[in-house]
Write a structure and sequence with these properties.
By secondary structure, the chain is mostly helical. The protein contains eight helices and no strands. Helix 7 packs antiparallel against helix 8. The protein is globular. It starts with a helix and ends with a helix.
Length: 211
Amino acid sequence: MQQLWELLIFGITWASMLSLSLALFRIRTKKYIPQMLISIVLLSQITYIIQSFHLALLVTSIQPICFFLCLWLIFRFKWVYSCIMVVLAYTMALAFEIFFNWILSGFNYNDFINIYQEQYFIQGFAVSFLCFLSVFILVKFRLGFSFLSSHSSNRPMPKMILTALTIGVISLGCTSLSLYIWNKWIMASYGITFILLAVIFHLSYKKELSE
């Protein structure tokens, strides 16, 4: 029963993150229902294995890679666009998680670390709600980028975006390590990751305007 409960939470969380990754680029979820279901099952199982074997310190390394592989191999997006979708959606979900944990901890640093490391059930519900809320806002107000599905998506990606994306992937992969190993540097690590997220959003917006 415990396993089913955990898989349910992980499934809801991944459904929200996959939906967010599509909504950010104005892609209709209805077009990818089979791919969504397959990816949710696979990603939920992977997350369960990570928790079962106490590999949480590698969560922001393993999960984004699996997330990327699902978008690339199952959804069949180009690898560079899959990477952009993962970095933007995963980092936004991470920001929601941090925001929720800070409020839950009463802005106490030690309580924040403890909640982050132990209370992943309630975090999953909070992140899912905020991701689905973001999807609703994006769809309702027709926000997001459209260059992914446009005819110009065959053009090469600007080098600045590729550079920011590479640094962003490395920074994202280090966030869980900073939480469990270098927790004195956790806020610096998150700060760098969110700055890079803002840079990628800005560069993506510039690309959107140039199309």
